[in-house]
Design goal:
Length: 411
């Protein structure tokens, strides 16, 4: 997707903001002699931004607007190293809310809806992002935050919630709980807006069927506003993103060269109008592709495919690059399995091994199924894993993100 003249002008404005400030990137750009962009060639010469830069800028080094104009910070959790802090001006907060409002509209959600928000509130961008957009839309918000399934369900019933916002893992947990308690007829949900993790068709189908709702995938990351910079539509073919707020490129994660529309690669995002902490060519490490052509819904907003994984999730096993998604796609062809699985990679006697745990109930022949999966995985990725089928419900469920790949080689 080529950058438009309008987007170039906006990127140029962002660069002016940066170099006129004392911020981390302002200094970096001045040192590199970057003064602006006029053409796509200029743009493609700009350096990439990395998560590590953001950590180096801790605590407020990214702040590009005067402090008087900063109204809020958000932070992405750092499991390793320093956290990342993103400052927002009032306009940034408003722009984010506007993008999120657009997401709800794309999902056919209106001000007559009652929206139950289960992602967490606080330093991170999840709960409050869902909330800002919903308030801008004029819907009634039930700001639950995560956990306490008992209370989630009673509020859902008593308040007749029509929209559930959640991570897909938590939506699945709630769906299973509703099924188990036989309270489906007391639930008024009609739509679900789920995000923040990659999830398979099978999990989607289960949530959709068990809750009887239409579901939408939301995209976003704390570094660039938060969730709400894109969402899937009724045609369920990728996610539209808001190209008036961001410019999105897909690059080869190894060579960092742009790939053609339709080819898979890493998402790189430039903000177009952000004041508090503009980011230019930020490497998200999310893998996707531009979906060429226009969507059947008629929207002119461009689309990316659902996230295939993270470029840093790529597992190198016996010298072969493997993505969790490839394994997942094989597993999805086995209808007797649940949506849950776990992949363990370890190093044994000088060799890499992969163990895959999947779930089935008593109607499946566990040994035979394991053999068939192993054979199919081998034909897909070139080597044979050890497959173990366990009882449905044995693998861990999570209220946040479910960890599916456990690499024991570096422990
Ligand atoms: Zn569409």
């Amino acid at each position: 997707m080529h950058i438009s003249d309008e987007q170039l002008l906006k990127v140029n404005d962002e660069i002016q903001r940066l170099i006129n400030s004392d911020s981390f990137y302002g200094k970096k750009y001045r040192e590199a002699g970057i003064t602006g962009v006029r053409t796509e060639e200029d743009f493609l010469r700009l350096p990439f931004s990395e998560k590590q830069d953001l950590r180096d800028a801790y605590p407020l080094g990214l702040m590009t607007a005067p402090e008087d104009e900063i109204v809020r910070i958000h932070s992405s959790s750092g499991t390793t190293g320093r956290p990342v802090i993103i400052p927002y001006t009032a306009k940034d907060v408003d722009d984010w809310g506007e993008q999120f409002r657009r997401c709800y509209e794309f999902a056919g959600i209106t001000k007559s809806d009652r929206i139950q928000i289960t992602p967490g509130y606080g330093l991170w961008t999840a709960g409050i992002g869902f909330q800002n957009g919903a308030e801008k839309l004029g819907a009634l918000v039930v700001p639950m935050g995560p956990g306490n399934t008992e209370k989630q369900l009673s509020m859902m019933i008593d308040l007749e919630t029509t929209v559930l916002c959640a991570t897909s893992s938590y939506a699945l947990l709630l769906a299973e709980e509703i099924e188990k308690r036989g309270i489906r007829d007391q639930i008024h949900l009609r739509k679900g807006v789920f995000g923040s993790e990659r999830w398979g068709e099978k999990m989607r189908a289960r949530i959709k069927n068990e809750l009887g709702i239409q579901i939408y995938d939301i995209y976003g990351l704390t570094e660039i506003y938060g969730p709400g910079i894109g969402i899937s539509c009724d045609y369920d073919c990728g996610m539209h993103y808001w190209d008036d707020f961001i410019y999105l490129e897909i690059v080869d994660p190894v060579t960092l060269e742009p790939v053609k529309d339709g080819e898979w690669g890493e998402i790189v995002i430039s903000t177009l109008v952000k004041e508090g902490a503009p980011l230019i060519r930020y490497r998200t490490h999310d893998l996707s592709r531009i979906i060429p052509g226009e969507c059947e819904c008629g929207s002119k907003f461009p689309r990316i495919d659902s996230i295939m994984g993270r470029s840093d999730d790529m597992m190198k096993i016996k010298g072969v690059n493997v993505f969790p998604k490839q394994i997942e796609e094989v597993l999805q062809t086995f209808t007797e399995l649940s949506s849950e699985y776990q992949i363990h990679i370890s190093h044994l006697d000088g060799r890499d091994t992969m163990r895959i745990y999947v779930e089935a109930d008593g109607r499946a022949d566990f040994l035979r199924t394991a053999e068939l999966i192993a054979a199919k995985v081998k034909s897909r990725i070139g080597f044979t894993p050890i497959v173990k089928v366990v009882e449905t419900g044995v693998l861990p469920r999570s209220e946040k993100k479910t960890k599916r790949v456990i690499d024991e080689r570096y422990d």
